[in-house]
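ARCHIVE RECORD
Type: protein–small molecule complex
Small molecule: flavin mononucleotide
Source of inputs: curated submission
Record status: active
Notes field left blank by submitter.
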Amino acid sequence: MSVRIGSLELEHPVLNGSGTFDAIAARQVFGDALLERFPFAAFVSKTITLEPRAGNPPPRLWETPSGMINSIGLPNKGLEGFLAHDLPQLAELPVPLIVSVMATSRDDFARLVGAVSEREEVAALELNVSCPNVKSGLIVGAEPAETRALCEALRPLTDKPLIVKLTPNVADPAPVARAAEEGGADAVSLINTLRATALDPRTGEPWLGAGSGGLSGAAVKPVALDQVRRVRAAVSLPIIGMGGIESGADALDFLRCGATAVAVGTANFRDPLAGERVRAELEALSEPARSLDLK
Ligand SMILES: Cc1cc2nc3c(=O)[nH]c(=O)nc-3n(C[C@H](O)[C@H](O)[C@H](O)COP(=O)(O)O)c2cc1C
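STRUCTURE (tokenized, with ligand):
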């Protein structure tokens, strides 16, 4: 069941999606039992930014059939707060730590990557590129040239694996994935949430405080599988596939579409041990799959 993401060796292929599992809160609730039964092979932090962010105005969640829309808006303590308060606690987890970072300029990305990657507690970095570049106004992860230039700028700053988290809000994610590979990324992860809106039935106005948000959960899985297949055909990098994974069978679908590893996101909110169950089910399914040569 072990997998390799760049230089990162993982015991099994199940991670968490950034922002969907609060390991610090879970440790407070479950105590050391969480460390003895940690559900993921590596822990991906919530995305951090250079400066603290309060996030979007409420309401921030809307439940849909088989999914949810969130407009959380990346609330976080900022780089200094993360390094001082969160990193020491996340470093106690029994698995490698992947820190997710996002910025609106190459310089700010460089400051984040430089400061985070010099901490030995950090095993790898994930670049959340679903954000505009303030200089060009373009969403970095929607533009192959922007993605490639960002990766080329950040690559010399760290020897640690750089994972580019792709946005699904593009006509085709393959050219962006190829650009990440050419720019020196070690892996890509996908999908992030799909842009979505819900209306307040009483007023007919957008329900979410931010107007729109991102759809996740079982509803997005077919989109995610399609995008993973397209990206697999375009790059030879390891792929971390996610989007609506709730079971080992879901995870196996992603591996069959070319993912190297998978991440569990929205399912964690209903069941904090969803990751453990997905891994166990995947392991049970993988045996017959291997002997039938279906993998
Ligand atoms: C409440 C919530 C918060 C999220 N926060 C982040 C985040 O901080 N950074 C990020 O890259 N993705 C974030 N995501 C996206 C997930 O990591 C994942 O890519 C997406 O939800 C698809 O997987 P899922 O359908 O299993 O949830 C968030 C998703 C949800 C539902």
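CURATOR ANNOTATION: Residues 17-20, 46-47, 70, 72, 74, 100, 128, 165, 191-193, 216-217, 220, 242-245, 264-266 surround flavin mononucleotide (CB under 6 Å).
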